[in-house]
Amino acid sequence: MKSGFVSIFGKPNAGKSTLLNALMGEKLAIVSPKVQTTRHRIKGILTEKDYQVIFSDTPGIIEPRYKLHEKMMQAVRSSLADADLALLLLDIRDNWEENNTLFESLRLKVPAFVVLNKIDGMAPEKITEATAFFTGKPYCRGVITISALKKKNIDGLLKAVLEMLPEGAPFFEGDDLTDLPTKFFVGELIREKIFFLYGDEIPYQATVLVQEFSEKTTLTKIRADIIVQRESQKGIILGEGGKMIRQLGSEARKDIEAFIDRKIFLELFVKVRPKWRDTENFLKEYGYN
Ligand code: GDP
Ligand code: MG
After folding, report:
1. What is the pLDDT of residue 63?
2. The domain containing residue 278 runs over which residues?
3. What tens digit of pLDDT does each residue of 94-152 get?
4. Which residues contact 100 (CB under 8 A, 6 or more apart)?
5. Is residue 170 part of a domain?
6. What residues flank ion ligand 2 with Cβ within 5 A?
7. Whose CB among 8, 84, 181, 191 lies 3.0–4.6 Å from 4's, allowing a Cys bridge?
8. Ligand nearest to the CA of 34
């Protein structure tokens, strides 16, 4: 039996969440073309007869301009320090040198693979060239090329990962895919919809707090608060005559029903909490710790 912790690390948009989803075969992390959607340290637990791999998807790297951002960087660092193996993921079309500098700056103590993502549609020479660029770098045990989106070489990656993991008993029991409660993922699915439905600053100013998650006989009742910083943002979330929030609710409902495989009744409320992003207590209350 092999078991261990694997951290997926990389710049925003490298494809960390997509890779985690591909590895897990279920939608656990939210995926969005916008940056900063993954704030939490999400773990996916892949358990088979002879192995257990615990993946974490770190938040993207950003400047600690707000307290929230500092928390995100702490999550990145703690997740890397805990791991048995790190996957340093990058978009093959991104700047290799810049990624190299970033990977070097982590001063990793754990072994790492460089994972070149988004090889779909890339010329084979480009892939060979990128592989050669990262091969032999001090932090790099090997280069693996994949397409997380097209699920190309995901099994090759998993095989390489397993070779690096120590022998040991599983850390988690049963068939739990993750140690985070369903409630958390429900909040993430609602937040993902906010990213797709609203422009500009709104998604970065809003958070979602699931207040009630109760199983009734024929459906699950879910009540969630969308927390924003200003009245004007509340107005945008609601839309004219509540048009936008109705659309948000109906789209989120479909995804949540698919995720928990059950009919739901979803109630959404918008609340204004000035400066929630900078307040230590709010961050604690909303799970950023
Ligand atoms: P994260 O910020 O690192 O978590 O990146 P995401 O997983 O959210 O992905 C960012 C964007 O890249 C999304 O639009 C994904 O669909 C896209 N993406 C991820 N993996 C691939 C891939 O293998 N090929 C292509 N073409 N796009 C990808
Ligand atoms: Mg992500």
Report:
1. 46
2. 182-285
3. 999 999 988 887 778 889 999 999 999 999 999 999 999 999 999 999 999 999 999 99
4. 133, 134, 137
5. no
6. 16-17, 38
7. 84
8. 1
